[in-house]
Amino acid sequence: MPLDHSPLAHHFRDLDQQHEAATLGMWIFLSTELMVFGALFTGYTVYRAAYHAEFAAASALLHIGIAGINTIVLLTSSLTMVLAVHGVRQGRRQLVVRCLIATAVLGTTFLVLKVFEYHGDYRDGLVPGLSFQDQEWLSHDPPLKPGAVKLFLFCYYAMTGLHALHLLIGIGMIAVLTWQTARGRYTPYSFNPVEVGGLYWHFVDVVWLFLLPLLYLVGPRGG
Amino acid sequence: MEPAMPARGYVMVFLALVGLTAATVGLAYLDLGPWHATVGLTIAGIKALLIALYFMHVRHATGLVRVFAVVGLFWLGILMALTITDYATRAWLL
User: Fold this and answer.
1) CB B37 to CB A218 under 8 A?
2) Can you tell me the distance from the alpha carbon of A106 to that of A75, in angstroms, rounded to the nearest whole number?
3) How far apart are alpha carbons B90 and A45 in whole angstroms?
4) Contact present, A40 and A158 (Cβ < 8 Å)
5) Which of A48, A60, A87, A156, by CA, is between 20 and 30 Å from A14?
6) Option in A27, A39, A81 nearest B65 (CB)
7) Is residue B43 within 8 Å of A214, Cβ to Cβ?
8) CB neighbourhood size of A60 (10 A)
9) Is the alpha carbon torsion for A65, A68, A70, A73 positive or negative?
């Protein structure tokens, strides 16, 4: 099949080197992303050590059911994503398109469930400035500092919010990859955007895998 | 470019990940005292390792890619170590 240009850019020795360069580039970017989330995680760790009782109490009120389902949703999306990368190496265009669409749908499902979860948090008095009641925490046994509880909630919204933003951008990226795949842009020799897009998607998944125990499972949950 | 491993391998890794997620949530309902964080983070670390090695193809990657994959953790380690020891050794900071 004639291409209007070679998939090998002139400054690379061969396709393998070009593929490695693209992979390295994405890993560098993921390292910077790791530092962004890592800074939030570090701040959270310091405050959790200082106010463990408040953090454990607030954490127990988060919706672990939705979080658990969302974890499975994201893990499934990682599977469909890696199957898309696997398919593009074999030149199976239709399979790739289906897997990418499935990945985007699962990512969107996560975000929709997140909206329901945030709404539930609002109804449970867990949004500082909107539905949060200081008195509810002061009359706890033993009394808890409302300020420290709000600190946990700020961390929770900041970390899950930043993650959700990354997921949204990822879904946009998947949409572009799907469109380009359907147009026949990728071949078994030239598919780097799909592979590095996959790396980004898996990274976003891994971030969530750490958010789950850190935010939702601070202490034991009652049955 | 031939694929690194058969599709069936990815499904098996996925099933392991789902199992570990069930373990994470299930263990939270037991009373592990001060061990909740350690257990949860350890399982998360195993899941992250599985995703990195198999879904992100680090297992079959060149040495240079592997270095780039882990070096971010090194910098993150500096960030966390210096910050946490700063707070841990100065009682008047918090």
Assistant:
1) yes
2) 9
3) 16
4) yes
5) A87
6) A27
7) no
8) 16
9) negative
A145-189 residue pLDDT tens = 999 999 999 999 999 999 999 999 999 999 999 999 999 999 998
Mean pLDDT of A81-91: 95
For residue A98, the Cα-to-chain-centroid distance in whole angstroms is 21
Question: So what's the ipTM on this one?
Answer: 0.93
Among B64, B69, B84, whose Cβ lies nearest the Cβ of A46? Answer: B84
- Nearest-neighbour CA in chain A from B59: distance (Å): 14
The predicted model scores a pTM of 0.94
Peptide bond into A142 cis (omega under 30): yes
B10 touches chain A (CB under 8 A): yes
B85 CB neighbours in chain A (<8 A) are none
Can you give the pLDDT at residue B1?
Answer: 47
- Residue A190 dihedral angles phi and psi, to the nearest 5°: -140, 90
CA distance A130 to A104: 32
DSSP B33-87: GGGHHHHHHHHHHHHHHHIIIIIS-GGGS-HHHHHHHHHHHHHHHHHHHHHHHHH
